[in-house]
Structures are given as C-alpha cells and as structure tokens.
Design brief:
Strand order of the largest sheet: 1-2
CATH architecture of the largest domain: Orthogonal Bundle
Structural class: mainly alpha
CATH superfamily of the largest domain: RNA polymerase sigma factor, region 2, helix turn helix motif
Distance between the termini: 43 Å
CATH class of the largest domain: Mainly Alpha
Largest sheet: 2 strands, antiparallel
Length: 202
C-alpha cells in the first residue's frame, strides 16, 4: 500500500509501524503505537466518562479495536486521526449503554396524585437462588479463563478477579505497563471469542 503524499512525517512513520504490526505481526510495532498514543486516548476518554477505571478500560478497548482492524486503515489520513475516531465512537457507545437516571434515595417523591413514593436501595445480600446462579456464573467464567494462554490467563485473573489496577499488575508481573495493556486487550479479544460458545450459560 502506497503512502499518501499529504501525510506528515510523523504520520508516515506511524504508517510504517502499522505495516509492521499488520503484515509482520511485530509486537514491538504494536507496543510503539500504543506507547505513542495511549496517554492522549486515555485523557480523552477520561474527559468523556469522568472515571479513571472506565477510561483505562476504554483506552485498551480502543486500541484493541484499532489493532484488529488495521487491515481497514487507509493511509489517506493519519493513523492517529483514525485511532481517535475509533476511540471517540467507543466512548460514545459506552456512555449510551451506561446512561441511567439517578434518583436521590433520601427523599420521597410526589407520585403525581397527591401521594408520595419512597425510594429504597435494594439489599446487597443475595437470596439463596441468586447466590447459586452467581456461583455458577463465576465457575463457568473461570473455566473459560483457564482456556486462555498462560500469560493472558494470569493478566485476566489479576485484572478481573483480583481487581488490580494496571500499575499494580505491572508491578506484580514485573512487566512494562505498555506490555500489560497490550497483552490485556489481546486477552480480552480471546476471552470474547471463547465466551461466544457459552453465552447461553453465562
């Protein structure tokens, strides 16, 4: 694929990295692209969702989607432009899916007919049936996770079962933060594929 003459020098360097990642499956090229843009994407996501953990996850998802679609990238415009568009759309989808009306629980509300309605929090404790279903789901999820490659399995357990931050995972595994994030989005893609086969049981 030929470079477009209107690309900046920086964009042309990015395109070379894209080709190495896409055509040669070069892990260093993936890591370099991640390293160049992860902070910018993260802060953009943070402005959108205003939650650090969600911004972290959305950043990883954005790179995951971009890297899985590298074959769709056309160098008529910069890779960074394409990446930021994917990240923005991903953030918008997240906001739409998670948008909910919040109600104050310490007040009563007018029911429109002269009466009032009390809002109460649902009890955190699960009934026996709910506890059983939850235990079954966790068991199935562990079975799925166990099918991952060992290095991916460890990262998924640390992130989603022990709920460690990316920095804590990097410290515990003695891996660079960029490597942790890059391998986690690949692990999540593999996990998604495995979950499709058992989605009726989860």
């Amino acid at each position: 694929m030929e470079l477009s003459s209107n690309l900046s020098e920086k964009a042309q360097i990015d395109f070379i990295l894209v080709c190495r990642a896409r055509d040669d499956k070069d892990e260093k090229a993936y890591a370099e692209l991640l390293g160049k843009y992860k902070d910018s994407i993260y802060f953009m996501m943070l402005k959108m969702v205003r939650n650090a953990d969600d911004a972290d996850d959305l950043t990883i998802e954005a790179f995951g989607k971009a890297f899985n679609r590298l074959h769709q990238y056309v160098p008529k415009y910069a890779f960074s432009t394409w990446l930021f568009r994917i990240a923005t759309n991903n953030g918008i989808d997240f906001i739409r899916k998670n948008k909910m009306v919040t109600l104050s629980i310490d007040k009563t509300r007018d029911d429109g007919e002269g009466g009032s309605i009390d809002f109460q929090l649902k009890s955190e404790s699960l009934n026996p049936e709910e506890r059983y279903v939850r235990k079954q789901r966790i068991r199935i999820m562990r079975e799925i996770v166990d099918q991952l490659k060992p290095r991916y399995r460890e990262l998924v357990v640390l992130r989603y079962f022990r709920e460690l931050s990316y920095d804590e995972i990097a410290s515990e595994t003695e891996l660079p933060l960029g490597t942790v994030k890059a391998q986690l989005f690949r692990a999540r893609e593999d996990l998604y594929e495995l979950m499709q086969n058992k989605k009726d049981k989860i």
